[in-house]
């Protein structure tokens, strides 16, 4: 991190200061001796305001700090409660690490990684909390954009992420196998837990957004679905995606949402496309072929419906297999009716995705 002009980069200095307790009279009994340590990089020799957190002192510039944070501006514009070393002194309630984070954002800007990682997520979480508290908007918006990029509400973006994960994690174990002419999820793939998203627990991100009052469905819905796709539990060792970070209301919302998604998925599986509307001008051959194809498809998918944790991905796999291998046509469907059936399946898949905010009671 680059130094800023006026910063004293010397080793942190320890000083004993006589500090008057806030909201007290000028009585000597209300003055105590405190050993302060100057922050090694955020104690500016030409600063004109002192912020203290526990025993750490930050000497900053009132004009710079006030410009970036309306909360700090209001604090600095308020009545003087104490002085120290001849400067205005404000005792902060936050931890030194929190204030260090805020001041680094103000003086240095926010170093944004292109992707949220295990290493960067604690740092970004602290920035979002502190910048939300002190109303420093730009870093908040940049972090929210990172979250939305990682857990997108746009189905094409979600599909691209899933495909990248599939290619990365399943070099040896196929995600799906053929069963009765239909592609179904490979049990060996699940048992290897190749599809678990355990790098960053979506429940922790949901809790962070709730804490910072960023409650937009466009942010929360993909996280709820990501959580539902992995192993989740109430207690015991934190294996997989533990739901402990969620509030009681969000735990209830999550459980209800999972059941609603699975029910909608089951409904779509058991209800074949409306024959009359898509092939009314066609022969009985196509209608019989559709019934035969859908009966096989439904049987294979229903076996995994209540064990399936990713119905959106399962429908994508079935549709892709039907398009590339022309499975419906092998049952006797003509090309035109095959296209109409696959378009109907795509519509059902999009419905699963777009109905999720409602299922999780986020709208």
Mean pLDDT: 82
Distance between the termini: 42 Å
Unreliable spans are: 1-12, 21-26, 191-198
Q: State the share of residues found in helices, binned by percent.
A: 40-55%
Radius of gyration: 29 Å
Tally of discrete structural domains: 2
Largest sheet: 6 strands, mixed
Output the structural class: alpha/beta
Compressed to H and E, one letter per element, the order equals EEEEHHEEHHHHEEHHHEEHHHHHHH
Number of strands: 10
Strand content is 5-15%
In DSSP terms, counting alpha (H) and pi (I) runs of 4 or more, how many helices? 16
Protein described:
The strands form 3 sheets. This protein has a 6-stranded mixed β-sheet. Strands 7-8 form a two-stranded antiparallel sheet. A two-stranded parallel ribbon has the order 9-10. A hairpin with a 2-residue loop joins strand 7 and strand 8. With 363 residues, it is α/β, with parallel strands linked by helices. It is elongated. It has 2 domains: 133 residues, 2-Layer Sandwich (Potassium Channel Kv1.1, Chain A); 206 residues, no CATH class. The protein has 16 helices and 10 strands.
